[in-house]
Design goal:
Strand order of the largest sheet: 6-9-10-12-11
Number of helices: 8
Strand content: 15-25%
Shape: rod-shaped
CATH class of the largest domain: Alpha Beta
Order of helices and strands: HHEEEEHHHEHEEEHEEHEEE
CATH architecture of the largest domain: 2-Layer Sandwich
Distance between the termini: 45 Å
Number of domains: 3
CATH topology of the largest domain: Heat Shock Protein 90
Number of strands: 13
Largest sheet: 5 strands, mixed
């Protein structure tokens, strides 16, 4: 099962869908982010160029005075934050070296009207040259580095929502996919918890339309399997019923023959024949009980006292225990009420006690008890027999399986009947040794949920 789960995880549609959508969202966000960054960066530069044009037009239209040659080369109206420089272009004061303090930028007076990128004083500048109405040429300049810093800051502010919302969007998509696949996960869990006999159809109305054809196919498979199992149970039950009549007739004939005067060897052979007939009848009864246990429960489910079941089973099996000189009884006064069919409960306890009596040597001991543990009634039946080796405990519940080396003549169906009923009613079975030190004897514990409102009683 672990390997299957690992395979499902690596080939998960949910995982693939999440990865594909996340990758698609990431790529689209990256392309959109790069496009927005470049657009915002270029737009910031265009706005800065428009600023230079507006400053030049302001000086031209308002006839504002500019610093003449010999001044600091900056206008009192220059925007110091954005480092905009306004100056005249004149060849008489043009310098070719680095910009000295108090002198204008060393810009060539040959600049044509318009925008230019010029290196002045060892730094790149964006320069707008313009001839005013007074026929004077002015230059409005700004450092390229400052312009780039402003443009970069503006572009980053534009991209910032993408960087913040992208992880949030990926988490939202992953969560939505998990929520969409939740009905499928719940369906898998429901099917996993079903017993072998629980083959009712799955309700596909609340499932996505893409999954419904698969569920319909599973329902058809369940129907075919249920029909096949029902046919098998009917065959076993019918065969057992058909064989009962001839075996009963043989048993009656053997009883009548035993009443006649027979030689010693013939009487011994007749005794063996009667034992064989009794084993066959017991096998048929067990087969009928197994077929009934495998059928859906139709009996009324009412609170059942475990001690009452113990007393009923002891009344039936006490003659067998006395014939083998078995000390059998119920330990303690703790009782428990469980919600289960009374017939199912009798069948479970009867088979367990019958096995304990048959596999316990003459003069041995069989004890029955009840305990309350974590909302469960714990039925414990232990004997002083040989027990079941740990290696064979899993197979002990298989039909017709008998422990190797056992000289007891049983059908091998008792524990199989108990396991079938316990699975149907939601009980669990635990096998162990009665005497852990000598690793001998068999102790079987069955955990059955208590009836609502029951705590503990004494009898």
């Amino acid at each position: 099962m672990d390997g299957f789960k690992k395979h499902v995880d690596t080939a998960s549609i949910q995982l693939k869908l999440s990865l594909c959508l996340s990758l698609a969202i990431f790529l689209v966000a990256m392309v959109a982010g790069v496009f927005s960054f470049v657009s915002a960066f270029d737009e910031a530069h265009e706005l800065q160029d428009d600023t230079l044009r507006q400053i030049a037009a302001l000086f031209d239209q308002q006839h504002l005075p500019l610093p003449h040659l010999g001044d600091r080369g900056r206008s009192p109206h220059s925007d110091e934050d954005s480092r905009v420089i306004v100056q005249y272009l004149s060849s008489s004061k043009q310098t070719s070296g680095k910009e000295a303090e108090g002198t204008p930028l060393p810009l060539p007076n040959t600049l044509s009207d318009g925008l230019h990128t010029v290196e002045a004083g060892g730094k790149p500048f964006r320069v707008l040259a313009k001839t005013t109405a007074n026929n004077e040429k002015i230059a409005v300049a700004q450092e390229t580095d400052a312009r780039d810093d402003i443009a970069l800051d503006s572009a980053l502010r534009t991209v910032m929502p993408f960087l913040i919302l992208l992880p949030v969007l990926l988490l939202i998509v992953a969560n939505l996919i998990r929520r969409i696949f939740r009905p499928v996960v719940a369906l898998a869990s429901e099917i996993e918890q079903r017993t072998d006999q629980d083959l009712h159809s799955i309700d596909e109305k609340h499932l996505p339309a893409e999954v419904r054809p698969f569920i319909i196919a599973i329902n058809h498979l369940f129907a075919r399997v249920a029909q096949s199992m029902a046919s098998q149970r009917r065959f076993v039950a019918d065969a057992a019923h058909e064989l009962r009549s001839p075996l009963t007739a043989l048993s009656l004939q053997a009883e009548r023959l035993a009443e006649a005067e027979l030689p010693g060897p013939t009487r011994e052979r007749l005794a063996l024949l009667r034992q064989g007939i009794d084993r066959s009848r017991n096998l048929l009864d067990q087969m009928l009980a197994l077929a009934k246990a495998q059928s859906p429960a139709e009996q009324a489910i009412l609170p059942v006292s475990i001690h009452d079941i113990y007393r009923r089973v002891l009344e039936d099996l006490m003659p067998l225990a006395e014939a083998r000189h078995i000390d059998i009884g119920v330990e303690g006064e703790q009782d428990g009420l469980v919600m289960i069919s009374r017939l199912d409960m009798i069948a479970m306890v009867r088979n367990l006690v019958d096995n304990a009596i048959r596999y316990t040597p003459e003069g041995g001991r069989v004890d029955m008890s009840v305990a309350i543990n974590d909302g469960h009634a714990v039925l414990a039946i232990q004997d002083s027999g040989p027990g079941i080796p740990v290696a064979e405990r899993q197979r002990a519940f298989d039909p017709f399986y008998r422990i190797l080396g056992s000289d007891q003549r049983g059908s091998g169906l008792g524990l199989s009947i108990v396991k079938t009923i316990s699975d149907r009613v939601g009980a669990t079975i635990e096998l162990g040794f009665s005497d852990e030190s000598s690793r001998s004897g068999l102790r079987i514990r069955i955990f059955i949920p208590l009836a609502d409102g029951f705590r503990s009683t004494s009898t």
